[in-house]
Amino acid sequence: MDEILDALIVGGGMVGATTAAALAQAGMRVALVEGGEPPAAIPDDAPFDLRVSSLNLASQRLLEAIGAWDHIPEARRCPFRHIEASDESGQRHVHFGAEALELPDFGHFVENRVIRRALWQRLSELPQVRVICRAGPVAWLPGGQHGLLELDDGRLLAARLVVGADGAGSRTRALAGIATRDEDYGQRALIINVRTRLPQQDVSWQRFTASGPRAMLPLPGHHASLVWYDGDAATRAREALDDEALRQAIERDFPERLGGVEAVLGRASFPIRRRHAERYVRPRLALVGDAAHVIHPLAGQGLNLGLQDAEALSRRVTAAFRAGQDPGDRRVLAGYGRERRPQTLAMIAAMETFHRVFTGAAPLRQAGGAGLALADRLESAKRQVMRHALGL
Ligand SMILES: Cc1cc2nc3c(=O)[nH]c(=O)nc-3n(C[C@H](O)[C@H](O)[C@H](O)COP(=O)(O)OP(=O)(O)OC[C@H]3O[C@@H](n4cnc5c(N)ncnc54)[C@H](O)[C@@H]3O)c2cc1C
After folding, report:
1. Is 38 exposed, middle or buried, given 0-12, 13-18 or 19+ CB atoms closer than 10 A?
2. Are residue 56 and residue 138 in the same domain, yes or no?
3. Contact 289 CB / ligand 1 (< 6 Å)
4. Same structural domain for residues 285 and 350?
5. Of 61, 68, 90, 308, which residue is least crowded by CB atoms under 10 Å?
6. Which residue range forms the structural domain that includes residue 343?
7. Is 346 left (phi over 0), alpha (psi -120 to 50) or beta?
């Protein structure tokens, strides 16, 4: 143990790397501990990866503010200007257009690995950040002036603040004794990358069906990422189809507006679970991102929520640091927990409502469709919802 760090971030995923950059940019001495390898460079013409996220405007602005956005090559980001959601019939729908908010777009779809690589490039430009790879925490001891984190390589690190950004199975959360509330939705999401006949679309759409939503996320060029939610057995059977059989299933079961699918380029499925930490803070410790919350991905808000955590925590902690105060102070962290936990609870409640209404009994689904059609006519309410979803 050679120094006392201002902050120690565990987990170099998108949320942890963002937090590290935001704190270091304010002059704090930061270490980032990552269990895996540093992200590799991605050639501009590499095939698109399956893990793609929608970055809303608030997330984009945060990445701009910490100097990471410009490291995302234009060839690998796809702006979207329209969002549509419809019921199973496709007749009743709600449409949101960026022009109604006088915005050029709602945000961008970008591969997770491209976002992460951009963030790590930014970290390499910040001399106050020390990166430790292939290591993880085994013990945590909070103290009066600082806490001690022991790593599995035998190192002992002292820091005034530890941030757990180590994802859904967070070891940091477990070491801090923070319990979670979990729910398994009994659904899987099959992600399929396809080459489309139509050129790049600037709309992200979703159709709710009784077995779960089907969504199209546009990617640059003639590419799209499809998300097909269904029960466990049905998803695994579909995932096992050969490329041609899966292509035909998509053309049969996805809305016609997708246009023809020329080829299936890749597929993988993920279980859909909810997990929420019972608290976000402990003495000298805070949780951010999936370590704090895993939500239903149907509205593509999980990463955006995590980046809002990073923004809120770094705003409060750097304000204390700049004022010469303790950045791991109990009141600073409590303020962060009070700000963020209710926001996540509201998002969980919204996702829960969508899930239960549209996978519920027929009358409930009918009511849901009617709700979408009604919402489409309420222009000012639509603008409010959009501003909220964009994190503005
Ligand atoms: C099917 C699907 C689709 C999704 N689509 C969207 C979307 O469109 N938009 C959106 O906003 N969100 C989306 N999400 C959610 C989003 O992917 C996650 O919220 C986001 O990846 C969480 O980032 P994170 O940095 O918090 O965690 P992670 O990405 O899990 O990163 C955790 C990091 O910590 C490291 N780590 C783990 N354990 C340790 C340890 N013990 N020690 C050290 N390091 C450790 C890991 O190696 C990793 O680098 C989706 C999720 C799913 C499942």
Report:
1. middle
2. yes
3. yes
4. yes
5. 90
6. 4-72+115-182+274-355
7. alpha
* Token pair of 77 as six digits: 């980001």
> Residue 264 C-alpha to ligand 1 middle, in angstroms?
25
* 377 within some domain: no
Same domain, 293 and 305: yes
Number of residues assigned to the chain? 392
Do 211 and 298 lie in one domain? The reply is no
Nearest CA to ligand 1 atom 21: 303
Whether 380 is in a domain gets the answer no
Is the shortest distance between the CB of 218 and ligand 1 below 6 Å?
no
